[in-house]
Structures are given as C-alpha cells and as structure tokens.
C-alpha cells in the first residue's frame, strides 16, 4: 500500500492525556513499523511542544486550536481537513464524532475517509445543548459519508446498525500493551512521592469531568469505611466548576491522594502496586485505563453502563452506575482479594492484532469506490 494517511481528531501524541490519544500513540508507530505506511498525525498546538517532528516513524504536525469546549475539536478538524486537502493525503483517518463533521468535506474533495467511533460523547454531562447538537451531527455525518467505519465494541456496532443502518462497520477493539514493570527502586520512588504502600490503595484513572463519575467514587469511598487509600490519577484539561469541587472534596477527605495526570513509568508504578482498580464512569467507549489495570492483574470494580458491560467481566465486578452506596458496598468486598490473571482474556486486545485489522480497513478504504 503506497498511500499517504493523515490522522485528525486527537489532541496529539506522544504523552497527551486521553483515551483517543493513548490509542493513536500505540497504533500508528506499529502501522509504520509493520507496513511502512506514510502517516501524519495532526495535533492541537496548546497540547504539544512541537510544530513539526517525528515520533517512532510517525510524522507529527501541530495546527492552531482554540481552547473552547464545544468548538475546539470541530474547528481544529476543519483546519486539519484543509491541511489534508492541501498536502494531498490519500486517506484521512478521523477519530471521534466531533471531528466527524468534516467527513462530507473530505469526500467532496475525493478523499477516502476511515472513521473510528470511540464513544457517544453527546451523552457526557459536561456538554451543553450546542455541543451535543454538534456531536450528534458529527456522528451522523461520519456514519453516512465515511468510506469505512471502525467501532471499538460490539455494543457500538449494534447501535450504529440500529441508528443508521450501517451494517458494514469493522469491529476493532481498543488495545493494551503488555505491562512495563519498572524496577523496584523506581516503583519505590513513586510510592514514596505519594506516601503509598504496596497493595494498600485503590486506584482510579480518568479526566476530572462529570462523565467519569469520580464524585460518585469519592462519596462511595467515604461511605465504605475501607482503610486503604484512594488514589485519583488525572486532572481536567481546563478548570471547571466540577473539577474544582472534585479536587476540593478530595483534599478534604482523609485517605484520598491526587497525583495529577500520570503516564509511562509513573503510571505503571502506581498500577503495579494497587490493590483494586475502580471505573465509575457514566459514559465510555472501550476504556483503555480498564484494560491497563487488567494487564497488571488488578481486581476491578466498574459501573454497569453498556460500554463497560461489553467488556464481559464477571457480574460481581459491576455496580449500578451512579449509585454511591452500591459502589461502597462492592468496595468493601473487592479489596484485599488476590490478583487476577486476565492473560487469555486480553489476547483480543493485542495492539499487533489491532494494527493488522486497521491496515486491512485502510486497504478496504483504498479499494472502496463508494
């Protein structure tokens, strides 16, 4: 395949917080390595320190972006679409439904478009009416006009068939790397930094926004009375009333530790020594943080939203979404349990398999005359 591919819809790589960003950082270097593809990822200038650079064979270009909750993604995607047209990219790979708005424009200029549907973002509580309208319109444009569509869960595949009659979507899961365990001295440094002891804390990872449900977790933690600490890994991209209140509540609650965003050996160190992982989200696609926790064999506790149920964990791992008392009760029985081996289960979330499946979709797009 001798085609140039441009990627839009991500804040950028490498080491930019977010599920789509983690997905792109893992996927595209593999595609370059395995298939020698010409791939350019467009990033948003406020989130990255470069204008142009290369990361593990992937070309990176930062384009201007306005930091506005509702308009940041669609406006940057419009700029990236014009960049794709100007530079002559053959295939454009769009991530997420907000950027999906530019799909008709790209098709008008003869581009083949691969669209990956990560999440129904319009279900997130943080969005106002305008943003939800834009997100729904983006989903509609992408589903109607994309050459090929990738979905990351069987739940999403069924939903897109029901909503739009799009029965030709490709089911390709999110992936997880094999856990990179830092040496014991490095692990100890990070545990000491946050005054933690091995297997003596519960961990949650996510952006400090309403759909992640961390306020429900804080309330559940207080109700549970468990003696282990609660470590919240993450922050908000931009301060909001919700994130400010969440941090204030966390700081006022005994046993809660805030680390800010973590990645690499810092995140791996925290994951590797945790007792239990909790994901209390109201809305998800296929959460990479959950897969990462499972790669470290952690017992997990997750909300019973459809996207999380699509991971097909044991029933005892789920609690009623938004119910802090149900989560508190589950926490008391989830802690102090043995580690769990998910090795067989995680085979379908292997990035090498996902890279191969994505390459096949690029070939399908190249040969798609629709």
UniProtKB/TrEMBL annotation:
GO molecular function: glycosyltransferase activity
Gene3D superfamilies named in the record: Glycogen Phosphorylase B
Domain of life of the source: Bacteria
Residues covered by the Glycosyltransferase subfamily 4-like N-terminal domain: 18-177
Pfam families in the record: Glyco_trans_1_4, Glyco_transf_4
Protein name (record): Phosphonate ABC transporter substrate-binding protein
Organism: Photobacterium kishitanii
